[in-house]
């Protein structure tokens, strides 16, 4: 079965090269903020977009030009987990939230950093909860 998107990126650089200029500008800015907030992160392509990990998936960047992401215009930054993920009954395929930007001026950098730091704290809480269950 082929890729439903019709395009497959082999690297983050290929992904970035594919983007139209208006999306690339937003993606690079969001990526810079994510990297500033999480210098120890891992950046990996999944679903043909960049996901950012520490202990688990924390967030992703999904531009509208990458099909089937339910982003009609602009670029989304999505957060993979909310506080409800601390409950063992959560659905692992569910994403907690996403913000969509169509221009750089729409991005409130301080608010976005706060969202990212909150997502990092949830990731830490999940790891600590797992360690307690194992002990």
What's the structural blueprint in terms of helices and strands?
Blueprint lengths: L11 H7 L2 H17 L4 E5 L2 E5 L3 E7 L11 E5 L17 E5 L7 H26 L1
Antiparallel strand pairs: 1-2, 2-3, 3-4, 4-5
Report on this model:
The protein has 135 residues and is an alpha+beta fold. Helix content is 37%, strand content 20%. The protein contains 3 helices and 5 strands, in the order H-H-E-E-E-E-E-H. The chain has helices at 12-18, 21-37, 109-134, and strands at residues 42-46, 49-53, 57-63, 75-79, 97-101. A 5-stranded antiparallel sheet has the order 1-2-3-4-5. Strand 2 (49-53) and strand 3 form a beta hairpin. The chain is globular, with a radius of gyration of 15 Å. The protein starts with 11 loop residues before the first helix and ends with a helix.
């Amino acid at each position: 079965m082929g890729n439903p998107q019709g395009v497959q990126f082999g690297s983050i650089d290929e992904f970035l090269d594919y983007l139209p200029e208006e999306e690339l500008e937003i993606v690079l800015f969001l990526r810079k903020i994510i990297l500033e907030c999480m210098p120890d992160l891992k950046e990996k392509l999944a679903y043909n977009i960049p996901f950012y990990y520490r202990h688990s998936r924390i967030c992703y960047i999904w531009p509208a030009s990458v099909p089937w992401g339910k982003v009609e215009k602009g670029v989304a930054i999505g957060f993979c987990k909310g506080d409800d993920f601390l409950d063992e009954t959560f659905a692992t395929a569910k994403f907690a939230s996403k913000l969509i930007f169509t221009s750089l001026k729409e991005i409130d950098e301080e608010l976005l950093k706060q969202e990212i730091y909150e997502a990092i704290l949830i990731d830490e809480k999940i790891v600590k909860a797992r360690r307690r269950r194992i002990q």
